[in-house]
Amino acid sequence: MPATPTTPSHEDEDLLFRILSQLDKAPDASQRATAAAVGTSLGRLNAQLRAAAEAGLVKVSERAGPDKRQRFAYALTTRGAAEKIRLTDQFLARKFAEYDALYAELTGTTSGLVPFKYRTKLMQNNLAPIPELYVSYDSAQKLKVEAAELKSHDLSPRQICDLELLMNGGFNPLKGFLNEEDYNSVVDTMRLADGTLWPMPITLDVSEDFAASLEIGEDIALRDQEGVILGTMTVTDRWEPNKSHEAEKVFGADDDAHPAVNYLHNTAGKIYLGGPVTGIQQPVHYDFRGRRDTPNELRAYFRKLGWRRIVAFQTRNPLHRAHQELTFRAAREAQANLLIHPVVGMTKPGDVDHFTRVRCYEAVLDKYPAATTSMSLLNLAMRMAGPREAVWHGLIRKNHGCTHFIVGRDHAGPGKNSAGEDFYGAYDAQDLFREHQQEIGIEMVDFKHMVYVQERAQYEPNDEIEDRDNVTILNISGTELRRRLAEGLEIPEWFSFPEVVNELRKTKPPRSKQGFTVFFTGFSGSGKSTIANALMVKLMEMGGRPVTLLDGDIVRKNLSSELGFSKEHRDLNIRRIGYVASEITKNGGIAICAPIAPYATTRRAVREDVEQFGAFLEVHVATSIEECERRDRKGLYKLAREGKIKEFTGISDPYDVPTDPELRVETENVDVDNCAHQVLLKLENMGLIAG
């Protein structure tokens, strides 16, 4: 009869915890020194080391040298590092419980350190260090060597942001990417499976092929886009999520107009992996390095300055005078110091780039009292999830040592849905945050909509102006600000600081001097290339900016000659065109693109690539399939009808007709010059060329 497996005792697990911690801290120490450090005999240490090696937690290698007592070297494996993190939580939870029992016995009341729903809360003191997932420097060097033999996953920009905040404690209490049980619980209830509040699914999405190559329990290396290893993960879960359900529950609607829902369906991998993460090194940032702080670095900074109450201001926009007044009032109301904590990871497509924003912040930082204000950058990939995101932002700021958090109207809202309505109510985020703020452990400060009262020459909360019928209330919306910047119009000093306006004008010159992209789409033979050539000549005749034509056939020959005509290859071809167009636009040139581009999701991705740097004009050349077939000089439609050309757009493969292009042109019974002139008129109307 086989022996029944026994559950390790607390004593055995505590000893294993001490051994793994000691090997991480002093991997080159002798066995005798290690036994003394962990408080056990050599015999018991050897037994534990053998068991740990068999379990894959420790790697044993022979070490040359005269001292026989040091003939073996021990190093933590990736799995051992993850187990150390798990045992650390377990050890601390038990010690906190023991302390709480003793405290209650002596004082008759609880200490407040009992974990909520069994998960350790190490944030009771907002200035005490919080757990990180990094191993020691020596262990990291050994893990780098070991990880060279592991399968690698190259992280996307969003995954790099997530991994950094997992490793440095910004996403505490998470110890890695969510497993399936935690994921399902977070999606449905905003809580981990053990009941801990956590509103956002932090998942590692990968391709089907990569997921199929893995075994459960296998370790993988997590690398940045240049191949630098940042950490490892033990794959404990692998599943295909219901992304429509995730969109409905997390973002409130399965609507591709929401940038995160669009990402979920059209960019993220089909399969999710879950498991604990071991941190080896943090991602390298070459920009604004002195402004980037981990949670523990900020907590240490607050301790050094003696700050006890800190209110955080979340922003992804430049700071104007209304924001200054808002933050001053919030700090006074909370009787707290101010942390300006802008997001410099991924924000909403179309937002001002973070380089420009940080220059704007630095330009006005001296408007704040240096003794009570600090600024730090947060490398967070926003999801624009409104109410859930507000709670998530609160938890993240709590991890960074803050005690108060400013929550705005329509906090982290993505704008309009497909029906032209706001995704979230103006105060939904504040309501959800208020409901959970005690559990979050951070107090909300309401964002007040500040407007300028001309007669008093000051900003005041809009809903507190009692004599509003007798005063002049001024305000400039974000849309109006962008229009004034685009057209080179005055931006009054009561609205913004001259330093901020100067920085914005450097990045956003008047539209007639910016680069832009004209993107033609339509069936083969619709006239795209002919109109594009005519437009190119007209724009070159006008002068002022370099003009580049990215015609479908020319790109196929020079940039994508190895690609076929499958959906995957056609998408890749269009994305290449979009990348080149975005670079041309960024550098102030004009890109004219004329591919078929049959798929709406790919056209949207190209638009987002380009609109980071300038305007995007989609032109649908709306020639009917019958007319295109009649014009068919190359005989392609005939071959497609005969089945000799597979996946031919309009015949054997679909074409997603643009639903809302900037311009739609008809070419039947209309000459080319007239069509090109329609595009010129539209460009003039958009302010992209001078009239």
* Main β-sheet description: 7 strands, mixed
Rg is 30 Å
Mean pLDDT: 87
Work out the strand percent: 5-15%
Overall structural class, as computed from helix and strand content, comes to alpha/beta
Report the strand count. Answer: 22
Oligomeric status of the shown chains? single chain
Tell me the number of helical segments per DSSP (H or I, 4 or more residues long). Answer: 24
Helix content: 40-55%
How would you portray this structure in words?
The protein is built from 24 helices and 22 strands. With 691 residues, the protein is α/β, with parallel strands linked by helices. The N and C termini lie far apart (92 Å). Mean pLDDT is 87; it is low at 1-5 and 114-124.
Task: Summarize this structure as a short list of keywords or feature phrases.
691 residues; alpha/beta; 5-stranded parallel sheet
Please specify the SSE layout and strand pairing.
Layout: H1 10-25, H2 31-38, H3 42-54, E1 58-62, E2 72-76, H4 78-107, H5 137-147, E3 151-154, H6 157-167, E4 176-177, H7 180-189, E5 204-206, H8 208-212, E6 219-223, E7 229-234, E8 237-239, H9 243-251, H10 259-266, E9 271-279, H11 295-305, E10 310-313, H12 321-334, E11 337-340, H13 354-364, E12 373-375, H14 387-399, E13 404-407, H15 428-440, E14 443-446, E15 450-453, E16 458-461, E17 473-474, H16 478-486, H17 498-507, E18 516-521, H18 528-542, E19 547-551, H19 552-558, H20 567-586, E20 590-594, H21 600-611, E21 615-621, H22 625-631, H23 636-641, E22 663-665, H24 672-685
Parallel strand pairs: 3-6, 10-11, 10-13, 11-12, 13-14, 18-20, 18-21, 19-20, 21-22
Antiparallel strand pairs: 1-2, 4-9, 5-9, 6-7, 7-9, 8-9, 15-16, 15-17
